[in-house]
């Protein structure tokens, strides 16, 4: 069902409202029969998108409300979250930063609602990877992440004005002789402290250790 403007060829063109066979509805702009321009699309499952369209795809700026109560506001490219956007998760966590192919990718800040901690740094395909800071209530960790875990050199910076330098080391996995269906999870990297200093300018972006370090 469609009510709205049409062009000389009879295609939906201009402003209109449509109810799709699956029960979804769309109200907004059309161009030559396709959703293009500003519009609001309501899904039968309770989700809703309001924003820019290009040839039936979410493209430009838009806000998507998901059925679980989460919400994304930001850039879209060909129906995918891409560019800059802010996501509010159903559990109250938030992410503000760069996206590619629907995943957190690039620079971004993720805030954990339960603890108030936040991760400020790099993401690769939805996973924390690269130089970052993990900021807690009265201290923070500055270092590098791999596969969502800190690894390699880093430092803890305490609000009282000192730092603990060291590195996260990946423990060697004990090889089990028996055949096991379930592979155990990789062991968590272990923190090995080396020294406590006054505040220093070291950052994980400095790949080469400076004088007196390393």
Which SSEs are present, and which pair or pack?
Blueprint: E1 2-6, E2 12-19, E3 25-31, E4 34-42, E5 48-54, E6 57-65, E7 71-77, E8 80-88, E9 94-100, E10 103-111, E11 118-124, E12 127-135, E13 139-146, E14 149-158, E15 162-169, E16 190-198
Antiparallel strand pairs: 1-2, 2-3, 3-4, 4-5, 5-6, 6-7, 7-8, 8-9, 9-10, 10-11, 11-12, 12-13, 13-14, 14-15, 15-16
Structural class: mainly beta
| Whole-number tally of structural domains | 2
Percentage of residues in helical conformation = under 10%
For the biggest β-sheet, the strand order reads 1-2-3-4-5-6-7-8-9-10-11-12-13-14-15-16
Q: Please state the average pLDDT score.
A: 91
CATH architecture of the largest domain: Single Sheet
Overall geometry comes to elongated
Note the run of SSEs as H and E. Answer: EEEEEEEEEEEEEEEE
CA-based gyration radius: 24 Å
What portion of the residues fall into strands of 2 or more residues?
A: over 45%
- Tally of helical runs: 0
- Give the tally of β-strands: 16
Cα-to-Cα separation, first versus last residue: 69 Å
